[in-house]
Amino acid sequence: MGAYILRRLLLMIPTMFGIMAISFVVIQFAPGGPVEQVIANLSGQGGGAGDRVGGAGGDFGAQGGGDASGYRGAQGLDPAFIAKLEQQFGFDKPPLERFALMIWNYLRFDFGESYFRSVSVIDLIKEKLPVSISLGLWITFLSYAISIPLGIRKAVKDGSAFDIWTSAVVIVAYAVPGFLFGVILRVFFAGGAFFDWFPLGNLTSENWAELSWPARIGDYFWHLTLPLIALSLSAFATTTLLTKNSFLDEIRKQYVVTARAKGLSERRVLYGHVFRNAMLIVVAGFPSAFISSFFTGALLIETIFSLDGLGLLGFDSVYQRDYPVVFATLYIFSLIGLLTALLSDLTYTWIDPRIDFERRAV
């Protein structure tokens, strides 16, 4: 197993290099970089990025009569001003040198500072983590807490009325987009056209520090109720059907028939013999499910319920061409994803020691 883990870790190096290289090349051809963002802002056409670059217009010099070719909207700006903008953003260096410097810094986990927020990228990510951790952690917990018992029950009652109507509910819940249900929840229960029962924005109220511990816990979940409902509707559908099918496959095997023939109770057969084998694929997928819930699918929910998390940060960074944040989050999330895939494989071997990845080709 040690050799397998070592091979997987070594394979992460070219994989990460390829991810960053392809992303860097794509960015080179993407229009509207940070220099263009500042120029557009100075000309009154930007989205507000330039006003967060430490007063770029005043610091770099006045507009002149030169023609700073190569950037849209740069006509009439002093070429020295454009050159200083490029130097500030690091674009005065050749692309290969910029890429090599970025990789070297990232290997030391030095992600620099945001272009348009006077804060380091790491501090910015830490600031947004509580929202994403809360959504990812509780969505994963709710998904498994609902899916596993429901999937087992559906497998035991396969073909019954209970199985049919719960399958219909699961399919409908999976088909309805989470953001659409989030809009409905906000309109009905968060100060829309009907009730104002749940708050929007942040994870806690302004007076959270003054509350008792039970009241703090209640306030925390009060803020998370609607986002969790919107996200969990489709989250449990896949795991439910996976659990059901896995149990059905195991229930039909010969060892289950033998256990029943020996006079074991149905509960003993189900939870003493079937459960461990059937849950292998479900439990082993927990790390990747958590990471998936943690980093994906929350952008629209964060926007709808005014939650400032990593999803919204990533979207704003791409929109503003805040490349340090874009590349840093890509690097961190890709690395976590690769490590999670390895952890999932190790979970398989922990649950079922008969699985030996070391004898297989990677």
Keywords:
single chain, mainly alpha, MetI-like fold
How would you summarize what this structure contains?
With 362 residues, this protein is mainly alpha-helical.
Topology:
Layout (H helix, E strand, L loop, with lengths): L1 H28 L4 H9 L13 H5 L18 H11 L5 H13 L13 H36 L4 H15 L2 H12 L23 H39 L2 H8 L4 H13 L1 H5 L1 H10 L3 H6 L5 H11 L2 H29 L11
Helix pairs in contact: 1-16, 6-9, 6-13, 6-16, 7-9, 8-9, 9-11, 13-16, 15-16
Descriptive notes:
- Helix content is 69%, strand content 0%.
- By secondary structure, the protein is mainly α.
- It has 2 domains: 35-110, no CATH class; 122-359, MetI-like (MetI-like fold).
- The longest helix is centred in the middle third of the chain and has 39 residues, at 213-251.
- It is globular and about 90 Å long.
- Residues 47-69 have low confidence and may be disordered.
Query: What is the N-to-C succession of helices and strands?
Result: HHHHHHHHHHHHHHHH
Named at the architecture level, the CATH assignment of the largest domain is Orthogonal Bundle
Query: Mind summarizing the main beta sheet?
Result: none
User: Per the principal axes of the C-alpha atoms, what is the gross shape?
Assistant: globular
Q: Which CATH top level class of the largest domain fits?
A: Mainly Alpha
Query: What is the percent of helical residues?
Result: 55-70%
Number of domains: 2
Please report the distance between the alpha carbons of the first and last residues: 12 Å
Beta-strand segment tally? 0
Q: What structural class do the secondary elements suggest?
A: mainly alpha
Question: Any idea of the CATH topology of the largest domain?
Answer: MetI-like fold
- How many helices in DSSP terms? 16
pLDDT below 50 for ≥5 consecutive residues: which ranges? Answer: 47-69
GO cellular component, one term: plasma membrane
Subcellular location: Cell membrane
Domain ABC transmembrane type-1: 129-344
Pfam families: BPD_transp_1
